[in-house]
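lol ok so funny story. i was supposed to be doing the assay writeup but got distracted and ended up predicting the structure for this chain instead. priorities right. anyway since i did it might as well share w the group, maybe its usefull for someone
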Amino acid sequence: MASVDGKYQVARSTGRCEATGTALEAGSPCVAALCDEPEEGGFRRLDFSIEAWEQGARPEGLFSFWRTTVPEPNTKKRLLVDDEVLLDLLDRLADADQPRKQAFRFVITLVLLRKRLVKFDRREETDEGVRWHLSRRGAAHANSPGWVVADPGLGDDDIVDLHEQLGEVLQGDL
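and the output, tada:
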């Protein structure tokens, strides 16, 4: 079983544009970027003003990005990415072999299951471990390929911690 004692940390946003260093103002649009941290086997989040992004500012190790809005201070947190971003992350993490990335993929799977965007088809035990087989819900996706997600054997506390961190990364909680 994996533990989160600092092992799965993803840095929160600094509230500043990574390219220019200027503060990102509440209510303004920005681009959130998820970047590989090869040495750590995980991710870091960086934010960019729309202007900097449109002028070509891109971080090293860019894995995924999405447009979001800088939240007003003291407002209720809400997920500021759409369902397609979560599905894209699930796809993009398919070949992840680092435990941290596999753990994040598993938590994304749990979020997608909870949102009823994917359905659990079956569980398989292999020499490599437990695998979950999933498919996209809805008649429009009947012939779409499904996903096989490794169960990293996380404990309840680890899942809660990773879920909260994933929420912080995807919310734009500046």
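Residues 99-114 form the longest helix (16 residues). The helical segments are 50-54, 83-92, 99-114, 156-171.
back to the writeup now i swear
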